[in-house]
Amino acid sequence: MAIKHLSFNLLILYSFIIHTNANASDCIYNIYVQTGNIPYAATSSNITIFLSDATKAEFPVVNLQNWGLMGSAHHYFRPGEVDLFSRKGPCLRAPICGITIVLDGFDSWYCDDIEITIVGFGKSCSQKHFVVKKWLDVNAGTAVIVQDECFIDNVPGSISFRSGY
């Protein structure tokens, strides 16, 4: 618990440092990724995540490991581990509500959870926890996972039309 608290404090400090060099339209993307605590869950492949909002705006996080805050000697995406990633980029138009996870490599990976926090100057903080609990496997043809939890009513000022009753 103390490590998670320390990581959170370092994340906040890192966000403020990055923000001092950011444009007013930039946001800080903080991403926690938990690999499943099961045999063979680890991967050394590249992982790319596309973040999306209800307006269908998208922000790509290409090769997530390049965003890593755990140090150059850290081995990312190991069983049972939570890894932290962060960087600045253009803000999405609405709160994040969807992700696409792509495994680009030669092996498989079991993704347990992904939590994303987005902060920006003069903008509301957006946080979303995705419970993934799925294998991505290049050899099995399942190297992409899409989790779309977006509804049109997530967009301020929009009217929601849902059917299915």
Automatic annotation (TrEMBL):
Q: Which Pfam families match?
A: ATS3
Identify the domain of life: Eukaryota
Q: Where is the PLAT domain?
A: 27-150
Keyword entries, A-Z: Signal
Q: Which Gene3D superfamilies match?
A: PLAT/LH2 domain
- TM ranges are none
| Claim: Signal is one of the keywords in the record | yes
Residues spanning the signal sequence: 1-22
Q: What is this protein called?
A: PLAT domain-containing protein 3-like
